[in-house]
Design goal:
alpha+beta; 11 strands
Amino acid sequence: MPRRTYLILPVVALVSACGSVEVKATSPTGEQLRECKAIIKALPKKLGGKSRVSVSGSPYALAWGDPPVVLRCGVGRPSNFDEALGCQSANGMLWFVPSSAIDDQDSDVVMTSMGRSTNVEVTVPGQDRPPVDEMVAVGDVLEQTTTKVGDCA
């Protein structure tokens, strides 16, 4: 029987009454802190046709649209990482996408960049799938602001 990984979506995006997206904080330090600042500064005002919206809870996060696409910088390796599944590649940037998100094409997808000196997590609402625009646009920024340190591991 094939092994299944079930995605437990973190609570990263709750829209409050004032329209701000509440994001779970990350705590980058050292070089990751410097790179997160550069990544946040370099990310586009629009992503996948969605405009940036206000974020609270972390200075190392951005969001676009409603429902929001949410990016958090300075994340670690996903707890549900599965080496057998490997990574998806978009313009040479590697992204881990859990098997549950691959199996259920209507679900939100939480994808994590891999093999970089600083990684980001991007949550894309199910209605905005496939997350190709997000993979490419964010990947281009990561290519310019971080260093490749490995492969999908």
